[in-house]
Write a structure and sequence with these properties.
By secondary structure, the protein is mainly beta. It has strands at about 20-25, 30-40, 40-50, 60-65, 70-75, 80-90, 90-100, 105-110. The strands form two sheets. The chain has a four-stranded mixed sheet, with no helix packed on it. Strand 2 (about 30-40) and strand 3 form a beta hairpin.
């Protein structure tokens, strides 16, 4: 009895995983203008951003980038606030950005997605 052999491509090819940053503008936004820059490259700009209080989210965006250490600049022009934070990008990195009740910009970095109801 003849048996068929499965052919395996040589050399074995695995597609490269492109790292992604997942940004979530969460709490405290009220008709704000927000700009995000990654390594001096603008990756997000939006005006009139307002948090949907039912779910605690104003907007989100996914950005493909390179692995390694980078600097994220967050600018909330309507409040005259800006913040630069170092981040280490791996496969998928999740970054939550909020405005605190006293008007400061805060952030949270996670390797897991944020949940919304």
């Amino acid at each position: 009895m003849l048996t068929a052999e499965k052919s395996v491509p040589y050399p074995y090819h695995q597609e490269a995983v492109v790292p992604k940053l997942h940004f979530a503008m969460q709490e405290g936004f009220n008709r704000d203008s927000v700009r995000l820059k990654l390594q001096d490259r603008e990756v997000y700009s939006k005006s009139n951003l307002t948090t949907r209080t039912q779910i605690g989210l104003a907007d989100s965006i996914d950005v493909e980038t390179q692995s390694g250490s980078q600097v994220l600049e967050i600018e909330i022009a309507t409040r005259g606030k800006s913040l630069a934070i170092p981040i280490k990008v791996e496969d998928s990195t999740y970054i939550a950005i909020s405005i605190t009740p006293d008007g400061q910009v805060s952030h949270r970095i996670s390797g897991e997605p944020f949940g919304y109801l």
